[in-house]
Amino acid sequence: MTLRSRYRTHRRNRYRQLLAFCHVARLGSVSKAATPLGTTPGTVSALVRLLEEELNAVLFERAKKSVTLTAAGKQFYALANPLVEEVAVLTTPSPEYVMEELTGRLAIATSMVGGAFVLPPYVKRFRDRYPSVHLRVSNGTLGDGIARLKAGEVEFLLGEREAPEDHSLEYSEVLSYNFVLIASPDHPLAGRETVSLQEAAGWPAIVPPQGSCGWRFDEPELREFGSKADVAVIVEGWGAIKACVEQGLGVSAVPSLCVDERDQLSVISFGMHSPVRSFGIYTRQDGTLTESALHFLALMSSAKECTGKRTSDVR
């Protein structure tokens, strides 16, 4: 079979080949690349080997537990990585490029924090690029999202990392964050670098209702702040909590990923009392993702690569 014949035969898989190649190159491992792609290491390896066959070049030096780019692999990565989101065909001998027209539906589940503060920019970018795909986003608790994912109602879930791990699911981190104290700019604590949980709990506080998504603090210290704080207002939703704090009604402990430079707030670190948490993507370990889902996850992965490891700790 000639190169051009193979191009015609495998043109529909070209994006998956390039995506698999770029993930393996970044992560240095076929098995690690399989997780964000929502597939198996065997499938990733097959896609990369097919690409090598079509290029008639060895792109990776393969060791027992890792892979590294060859000189040819580094050159090809420099070309493929900036173009992978554009679904450019780089292996044809003529200047021919194919943009894949995506249609259909894509169902995503997300936790409440993910739906409000993490997912919207990615949805905007995806919709701008693939307007024919109908998106359905389900917001809820992490438990609800996991149930939908296992039932096959959604293709992936965006949410906090849970412990213990569920071995039927694969998890890939998108960003890291922690909890911080927020106060109005004229609050006595404003401008502080750090504050202890004990001192923070001594001020009037804005807290979410017990049993709500926001009340589920993972660490004992934060549960202690939520239960011992001098509660001034109980309100659901991180956006509503921030609004109350901006009005000077009290302080609150919130995930750092909920806060940005547009908020009129003083942000204070809890220091070592608030460990770094992980926020990312869950996929079914034995599931196969649609092309729309693969494109969405590639878009998220590319955004992370462009900015480095995104961390939402504002201190």
The number of helices is 11
Q: How much helix is in the residues?
A: 25-40%
- Based on CA inertia axes, which overall geometry fits? elongated
How does the helix and strand content classify structurally?
A: alpha/beta
Biggest sheet features:
6 strands, mixed
Low-confidence runs of at least 5 consecutive residues: 1-10, 87-99, 305-315
Distance between the termini: 58 Å
Beta percentage is 15-25%
- The mean pLDDT is 80
Order of SSEs, N→C?
HHHHEEHEHEHEEEHEHEHEEEHE
Rg for CA atoms = 23 Å
- Going across the biggest sheet, name each strand in turn: 4-3-5-12-6-13
Relevant terms:
alpha/beta, elongated
Strand and helix layout:
Elements (H helix, E strand, L loop, with lengths): L2 H8 L3 H14 L2 H8 L3 H15 L4 E3 L4 E3 L1 H13 L20 E8 H18 L3 E8 L1 H9 L5 E5 L8 E9 L1 E5 L13 H4 L3 E4 L12 H9 L1 E5 L3 H9 L5 E4 L10 E4 L7 E8 L6 H17 L2 E2 L4
Parallel strand pairs: 3-4, 3-5, 6-13, 8-9
Antiparallel strand pairs: 1-2, 5-12, 6-12, 7-10, 7-11
